Amino acid sequence: MTSLLTLLVLVAPASFLAVRLVALARPGDEPDLVARSGNLAAVVGVIASIGAGVAVALDGLIESPTWGWGGVGFSIRLDPLSTLMFAMITVLALVIFRYSCTYLEGDERHGRFLGRLAATVAAVEVLVLAGNLALLVVAWIATSMALHQLLVFYRDRRRAVIAARKKFIVARLGDLFLIAAVVVLIVHFGTGNMQQIFDAVASTAQPTWQLDAVGLAALCLAIAAMLKSAQFPTYGWLVEVMDTPTPVSALLHAGILNAGPFLAIRMAYVIDGARVSTTMLIVVGGFTAVFASVTLLTQPSVKVALGYSSAAHMGFMLMICGMGLFPAALLHLVAHSFYKAHAFLSSGGVIDEARAAKVALPRRLGSPTRIVASAAIALAMYLPLAVVFGVRFGGNPVVIAVGGILVMGTTQLIAPALDSAGRLAGTVRAAGLALAVTASFFVLEAGAHHLLSDTVPESVGRDPFQLALIVAVLVAFATVVLLQIIEPTRAAGRRRQRLAIHFRNGLYVNAMFDRAIGALRADAPAVQSSL
After folding, report:
1. Are the C-beta atoms of residues 308 and 239 closer than 8 Å to each other?
2. How confident is the model at residue 530 (pLDDT cuts 50, 70, 90)?
3. CA distance linking residue 477 with residue 479, whole number of Å
4. Are 413 and 370 part of one and the same domain?
5. Which residue among 319, 345, 371 closes a domain?
6. Which residues pair with residue 73 across a beta bridge?
7. Whether residue 274 sits in one domain with residue 378
8. Taking burial as the number of CB atoms within 10 A of a residue's CB, which of 52, 101, 107, 146 is the most buried?
9. How distant, in Å, are the alpha carbons of 40, 359, 491, 492, 500 from that of 495?
10. Are 31 and 23 in contact (CB under 8 A)?
11. Residue 86: its pLDDT value, please?
12. Tens of pLDDT along 424-467?
């Protein structure tokens, strides 16, 4: 039975690899066979994900035999995390591939593009299904290399090639840290089987600051996850790959970029077993979330703003992982994936943009009383639902921190309506939307917590130093939220304009990376052999 289920899920990536082979034979501008086979492969993937989900719901964890030596090799793992990620990827692949069949219609290399897209999807599917560290590393690297071929699809676009070059450098650094973590874990535990490693780590003492084998592996895993997800200061390539075809941007931001948070959730037992790794995720993830959230507000380009938005979301997910709330991070990951896929695939909707431009927003008042009242209403919505869903405020302080972030978010929904000269009906609708968001969060988070109850460790809380860092991050978030609420009510000043210019350029961190790789030279070649 296990072998049959393994073959069932492997049909999905195998089908997309077959599409890649078809594309090699039909790379031209009339790739009907490539398009039909790709759409069929996408449907096969969705069916396989449904079957895998039903099997896990009935039997729980399912692992295939390991094809390798000494416990190290290739094996497939089906559990709630892998099946949920697998289902998400197959649905996104179906939508993005169908979109791609007409997006580049008439391009002389349309078939080649579809083939590269299929190969990338296949690599991502294997990544989330991996049950052995060896296969995890192979799929991790394959995903990056396949994506690189999509990023440089138009090699005459110098900006896209430079961005891909920076992505290539960052990705190889991430590969090295992941390989280092895997080697340490295999040597220490004598196996590459994830479940055996998780069981061994779970049976040890509480997390410490010691850099023993588990601590060193956890640190390397955290760094690999951050490098994969374009965290500060390596975010530059993400906001510069917008010259690539739109389907590539959708697949990157909705799927591949999530590999960082996925790695943190997948290896949660290891990462949560070392204070140094969780602290790094809190600091770097939290800072990136705040920095990118402010920077995206200064961007004139919709796609660049979406790039900073993705970096901010990745940072928030990794920060939540550092807090030990892995189910909440998974919920955010899935929601962000579908939201960002829709955002990119619809980014060219000029009709919708024209309609939105005709909407006259009510004048903001800038009343401190109304802004405070908005926060009070958001808090009043949160507290009863928290009690109903069993949140213990005297227990884990991290849960209170996440609640504070939720209240800040819903305040942003209520304040623009309440603090305006608009009609009362608009405020009621905004409050209703905020209530729906709050209720949805509790329902979905409870579902995610139940789903991952046997897949990730329970949150064990954080030590005083980490709690102080979390408080600092919350203060930073509160400041950003307050600025976002009151910014439309303030007159533009020269100091603010100068500050906006600095943030629009990402505080020039990306320019330093450009200088390091020679991208600022006027005579720099568009493509180098290393690509």
Report:
1. yes
2. very low
3. 5
4. yes
5. 345
6. 68
7. no
8. 52
9. 56, 30, 11, 9, 9
10. yes
11. 96
12. 888 899 999 999 999 999 999 889 988 898 889 887 778 889 99
Same domain, 117 and 171: no
CB 136 within 8 A of CB 130: yes
Whole-number average pLDDT of the chain: 87
Task: List, for residues 123-150, the tens digit of each pLDDT value.
Answer: 999 999 999 999 999 999 999 999 999 9
How far CA 13 is from CA of 49, 64, 436, 525, in Å, comes to 11, 16, 37, 36
Q: Are residues 204 and 306 in the same domain?
A: yes
Write out the H or E segment, with its range, that includes residue 73.
strand 72-74
Q: Identify residue 284 by its one-letter amino acid code.
A: V
Give the structural domain span for 200.
150-345
- Residues 370, 320, single domain; the answer is no
**CA-to-CA distance for 288 and 421, rounded, in angstroms?**
35
Q: Which residues pair with 63 in a beta bridge?
A: 77
With a CB cutoff of 8 Å and minimum separation 6, the contacts of 341 are 92, 95, 96, 250, 253, 254, 255
Token pair of 135 as six digits: 């296969």
Total of domains in the chain = 3
C-alpha–C-alpha distance, residues 383 and 239, integer Å? 38
| Same domain flag for 266 and 405 | no
Closest by CA to 152, choosing from 140, 143, 160, 144, is 160
Mean pLDDT of 259-266: 96
* Rounded Cα distance, 8 and 118, in Å: 18
- Band the pLDDT of 525: cuts 50, 70, 90: very low
Q: What is the mean pLDDT of residues 186-193?
A: 95
Tell me the two tokens of residue 323: 């807090």
Q: What is the pTM of this model?
A: 0.91
